[in-house]
Amino acid sequence: MVDAVRARQLGIVHMLRSRTNVPASELADRFGVTERTIYRDITTLTAHGIPIQAQPGKVGGYRLSPDTALDPLTIDSDHALRLYVLGFLDPDAAATEDRARAVGISDTVQEVIRRLARRIHFDTADWYWRDEGSGHLPILRTAMLAATAVEATWRTKTGSQETALLKPYGVVWKAGEWHMVAARATGGPARYRLNLVDRLVPTDLTFAYPESFSVRDWWAQAMEDYGKGEVRVALNVTAAARDEMLRLSLKSTSQVHEHDDGSLTIVLFVDRWEWLIPLVSSYGPDVIVTEPEELRTAIAGQLRRTLAVYDTAAAPGPAPPDGLPDDDSRLRSTHGRHPGA
After folding, report:
1. Who has the most CB within 10 Å: 133, 319, 333, 339?
2. Among 191, 225, 259, which residue terminates a domain?
3. Mean pLDDT estimate for the chain
């Protein structure tokens, strides 16, 4: 990660980009250091080729030289890594480099990213599920970097299609699927699963990116709110399934009660109990629903229908192995999917 000194120096460059003249005192106040520290930072930056000029007088200060071109992406290794993650997920390296040149990324920066590409590989597919939606990434990435809107058409939970102009704020890869965080012309951001997006078209309409917005913070809150509701679900978990069930991403409202025999009682508060059917069913007798009764009835019905398919007159086969697998195979089998999410 970037240390404090390098982060401050990069911040100085960004501040000088946006202003004609910035006094050392203002830079010192902005970054919480002394003016002497700012002088040292300016000396370091100029020694590394950043074209900074000092303007004397009461209205003077520091500014970037108007006669010297500055790489649009003055970066350090950490910023290069972030650029690589965002920009080099495409298999077509030649096309990617053409786009990089088109937006003004210098050969030096491209070489840094090429080196990273030879050393770091991002496998964006889940273990057992296809990588879906990543074909939209090139358009989405360009729109995010240029702060331009996109026109998207996606499938809704009812199966119909909806089209809207969206302002892309960020992109998130979670559990083998890509999600776009975007806002309409009015209103706050929302989550769009890219594998449900049938059409994504760039536009030349620009928007002001909200500088206070953090996709990481927004996503964390969205995941906390996702699936949460007023429906109380109580699960009895045997000691055999204890460790695996404790790996679930529980909400802040969830309750876990441990018992002396190693078993658990987990209480969830969800928006609807239907999405728990495949998860609980996959644990057989090791995770039992005690409430609500509707969920118990639904799971019992599903297990009876499954048993009927396998219940034949043929001689019984070998008994199933005792105990649970020492992995997360059942969590993977459900993929954490909420129907229609």
Report:
1. 133
2. 225
3. 78
Helices and strands: H and E segment counts in the chain: 12, 11
Centre a 10 Å sphere on the Cβ of residue 306 and count the other Cβ atoms it contains. 11
Residue type, position 46, single letter: T
Residue 328 domain flag: yes
CA nearest to 129, candidates 171, 173, 86: 173
* Region of residue 2 (left: phi > 0; alpha: psi -120 to 50; beta: else): beta
What's the gap between Cα 194 and its chain centre?
Answer: 12
Q: Residue 206: give the domain boundaries.
A: 141-225
Residue 186: count of CB within 10 angstroms of its CB: 5
Residue 153 and residue 58 share a domain: no
Is the residue at 8 inside a domain? yes
**Which of 194, 160, 198, 156 lies closest to 178 in space, CA to CA?**
194
Nearest to 279 by CA among 317, 319, 231, 247: 247
pLDDT in tens, 241-270: 998 888 888 888 999 999 999 999 999 999
CA 275, CA 146: separation in Å to the nearest integer? 38
The Cα–Cα gap between 14 and 9 comes to 9
Sole residue written with tokens 């699963």? 193
Assigned domain for 133 exists: no
| CA-only gyration radius of the chain, Å | 27
